[in-house]
């Protein structure tokens, strides 16, 4: 019984961390095939009360089904709008592997790529400024 209790405590901590990425984040860059050394994640204000500036920029949505979508929005149509789709896998409570599956661009640029590429393994680092996904060195 004690072992069962310890397993429950261990996995509840693991899943609590795992759920920490679920949701919509504003980020410093769209997750594309041009891999960044780190991504800065701050909680996105997606309410109707959000200012216009809060609604524009680069975002990533981590869904609870281990998929993500990253995209760029701007106030006008004279821009390059990139959207990507992929999956993420927790390797432990502070480490995630990101895999990109699709890229689509519209607006002032046109491109579409459907190729599965592992973007890398990232450490999940939380500090007072927010959350960072820091790429591990190979």
Q: Would you mind describing this structure in some detail?
A:
This protein is mainly β and 138 residues long. The protein has one domain. Helix content is 12%, strand content 51%. The chain contains one helix and nine strands; from the N terminus they run αβββββββββ. It has one helix spanning 2-18; strands spanning 23-27, 38-43, 57-62, 67-73, 80-92, 95-107, 111-113, 117-127, 130-135. Strands 1-2-9-8-6-5-4-3 form an eight-stranded antiparallel beta barrel. It is globular and about 40 Å long. The relative contact order is 0.20. Mean pLDDT is 86; it is low at 4-18.
List keywords for this structure.
138 residues, mainly beta, 1 helix, 9 strands, globular
